[in-house]
Design brief:
This protein is mostly helical and 326 residues long. 40% of the residues lie in helices and 3% in strands. The structure holds heme C (2 copies). One heme C binds at residues 4, 209-211, 213-215, 226, 228, 230, 261, 263-264, 266, 269, 272, 275-277, 284, 287-288, 291-292, 295-296, 308.
């Protein structure tokens, strides 16, 4: 908690130094706060395309109806658009689905960061009774009964179909899901005309209000943990607290981690409503007002919220050469 205050104070003092003189210093911004999404890794011996098939494979779930793509729809921003995801048997899960796009840029996976890698993350949905409700022996048996998969795995992996290889193929595919060349990234790379005056104003507000203290780096998030409710008690105000609201406390058992979450990426925020781990904010407007109150302890003018949303719109880039859309 104190660390957060200190970093915010440090941040604001840097900000004022930056703001003195002739407006924003694009070079400082480029090196300090947000960086372009890197291009996805190159050729991988067919692992990514096998992973793409597996990502859409409903036989990874116990009722053969749910694939990863059921909740992470690649033509809908990598999310399902629900407050909480619906898994096997129509059961509602506990938490909102984040996008899989750019997930490889996050320094850990899940809202509470309980998986260190994309490979490790995959054990979660496979085994979770409210998600795919399966297990590795069943998944392996299903895939081995399909000669197509046997051939494809054997062509790529010495030991054929194994849980490790399924995880490796899917994670390799996920690492290809970088959404690149957004207008903001073009701006960062030096094209000053890539974003409009209003969008630039939105970016300045994003910095001056202090959003960038937490939402920063290549993914404009995904590189630190922070408490949800620093300046005011979000959970007391929302009520009906459940286990998932404890955040990293569930991972560490440490009181200091109660209600601490991985700061989510805002790269695709304009496409991924509803917002927050509890899916409680229907619109970006609402989410930004919640952030202002509970993370920054201040009120944001309506017109500033609009400008920040315009800035967030510049963060969406291309996947497979085409702009991502809702
Ligand atoms: C029933 C819906 C559902 C299915 C099916 C599903 N997911 Fe998810 N996914 C979620 C939810 C909900 C979360 C957030 C869970 C949490 O943080 O506790 C999540 C989190 C993730 C994350 C973490 C992203 C981040 O930024 O933290 C990745 C990566 C991911 N899923 C990939 C997959 C893959 C790969 C599969 C298939 C093996 C899959 N998901 C299947 C709903 C689903
Ligand atoms: C002190 C750190 C911090 C600051 C400052 C901060 N945020 Fe956040 N932000 C978070 C955390 C943590 C979450 C995840 C909360 C949750 O759902 O558990 C979040 C979530 C969000 C989300 C929802 C994303 C999603 O996909 O669900 C949006 C949008 C957002 N922040 C925008 C902003 C804006 C705009 C500002 C500035 C006005 C801001 N944030 C300031 C830490 C911060």
């Amino acid at each position: 908690m104190h660390l957060v205050f200190i970093s915010l104070i440090l941040f604001f003092s840097c900000q004022s130094a930056l703001a003195e003189g002739s407006g924003i210093d694009v070079n400082a911004v480029r090196s300090e706060f947000i960086q372009p999404v890197p291009y996805a890794p190159g050729p991988d011996d067919g692992k990514a395309s096998l992973g793409e098939t597996l990502f859409h494979e409903t036989r990874l779930s116990s009722d053969n109806k749910i694939s990863c793509a059921s909740c992470h729809e690649l033509d809908s921003g990598g999310v399902d658009g629900l407050v909480r995801s619906i898994g096997v048997g129509g059961v509602e899960g506990d938490i909102n689905a984040p996008t899989v796009f750019n997930a490889g840029l996050n320094y850990s996976q899940f809202w509470d960061g309980r998986a260190d890698t994309l490979e490790e993350q995959i054990n979660g949905p496979i085994n979770n009774p409210k998600v795919m409700a399966s297990n590795w022996p069943d998944v392996i048996a299903q895939l081995k009964s399909d000669p197509g998969y046997v051939g494809e795995f054997n062509a790529i992996y010495n030991d054929g179909i194994t849980a490790d290889n399924v995880r490796n193929a899917i994670a390799t595919f996920e690492r290809s899901l970088n959404v690149v060349d957004s207008r903001f990234d073009q701006f960062l790379r030096g094209d000053k005309e890539a974003i409009s005056k209003d969008e630039l104003k939105g970016y300045e507000l994003f910095k001056s209000y202090g959003c960038v203290a937490c939402h920063q780096g290549q993914n404009v998030g995904g590189n630190m943990f922070q408490k949800f409710g620093i300046m005011d008690d979000y959970f007391a105000d929302r009520s009906a607290v459940t286990r998932v609201d404890f955040g990293r406390f569930n991972v560490s058992g440490d009181e200091i981690d109660r209600h601490v979450f991985k700061v989510p990426s805002l790269r695709l925020a304009v496409l991924t409503a509803p917002y927050f781990h509890d899916g409680s904010a229907e619109t970006l407007d609402e989410a930004i007002n919640v952030m202002a109150r509970y993370q920054l302890g201040r009120h944001i003018l309506d017109e500033d919220v609009e400008l920040i949303i315009k800035f967030l719109g510049t963060l969406v880039g291309n996947y497979k050469g085409k702009p991502l859309r809702e």
